[in-house]
Design brief:
By secondary structure, this protein is an alpha+beta fold. The chain has ten helices and eight strands. It folds into two domains: 66 residues, Winged helix-like DNA-binding domain superfamily/Winged helix DNA-binding domain (Arc Repressor Mutant, subunit A, Orthogonal Bundle); 168 residues, GAF domain (Beta-Lactamase, 2-Layer Sandwich), CATH 3.30.450.40. The strands form two sheets. The chain has a six-stranded antiparallel β-sheet with strand order 5-4-3-8-7-6. A two-stranded antiparallel sheet has the order 1-2.
């Protein structure tokens, strides 16, 4: 599901999520070299072609001299590149990303079934996995342009308000639900469920029905339907979703979703 500025105050959700993870998950992380390198790399958002040294300092909160020194080392490693006086992410990062085994296998297996699902529903299809308190979109295919421009592969959104996330939460250990609640349920739109009790009731219903539905919790005017994907020995692998404008969301999509999810699961097994 995509995020727009409608009903969402943070124009840079991935950067905000990353900063919270760094600060909350490892209080002493900034004392290490890697702890300083991480916010430099994560300072770049999908909309940034390049960033100045001053902007890197502002976004990371790291001293200017330290950012300058580390940025130069990252340039030497190929993780950053110089563009005049600015910096951009380097090709080396792309090369390393293509070596992530799980990503490559999941995308290769899921893609044919996602193509079939796209042909059946004629709506945007996402395949997502769980990472920390978020879903990360491993693959996305769509026939439509414009409305879904900001939805992208490798984008992330909270587990509690997305259909893919709710499907994952419902079939995950209850400790994950507790972590999500402790992390805070913040509204992305006026329809986002931010009550732990209501979310828990939704997850009970999802476990009973085997599918999740969110309507305008992430983006006004859009809805998503998702089902879990199970792999070897019945282990939860991720979730598969159909996203569409609310007026085009058809209940019958759930049958096509289940067929595709079962196909992905069989292929993984």
């Amino acid at each position: 599901m995509t995020v727009t500025s409608v009903g969402y105050a943070d124009p840079d959700p991935d950067l905000a999520v990353s900063a919270k993870r760094t600060a909350a998950g490892c209080p002493d992380s900034m004392n290490s070299v890697l702890g300083k390198v991480r916010p430099i790399l994560e300072a770049f958002t999908p909309g940034d072609s390049s960033l100045s040294l001053a902007e890197l300092v502002r976004r990371t909160g790291v001293a200017k001299a330290t950012v300058h020194r580390l940025a130069q080392e990252l340039v030497d490693w190929g993780l950053l590149e110089r563009v005049g006086c600015d910096y951009r992410l380097g090709l080396r990062l792309f090369e390393l990303g293509q070596r992530v085994h799980r990503q490559r296998i999941l995308r290769d297996v899921a893609h044919p079934y996602m193509d079939d699902l796209l042909h059946t529903t004629r709506e945007t299809i996402h395949f997502a996995i769980h990472d920390s308190l978020d879903v990360v979109y491993m693959e996305k295919i769509s026939r439509h342009r414009g409305g879904e421009e900001q939805s992208r592969v490798a984008g992330r959104l909270p587990l509690y308000c997305t259909a893919t996330g709710k499907a994952i939460l419902a079939f995950s250990p209850k400790t994950l639900f507790a972590e999500v609640v402790r992390g805070g349920l913040k509204p992305l739109t006026r329809h986002t469920v931010i009550s732990a009790g209501r979310l828990s009731a939704q997850l009970d219903q999802i476990r009973e029905e085997g599918s999740a539905l969110e309507s305008e919790e992430v983006r006004l005017g859009y809805a998503s339907m998702a089902v879990p994907v199970f792999g070897r020995e019945g282990g939860l692998v991720g979730s598969l979703s159909v996203t569409a404008p609310t007026y085009r969301m058809v209940p019958g999509h759930v049958n096509a979703l289940r067929t595709a999810a079962q196909g992905i699961g069989r292929s993984l097994r």
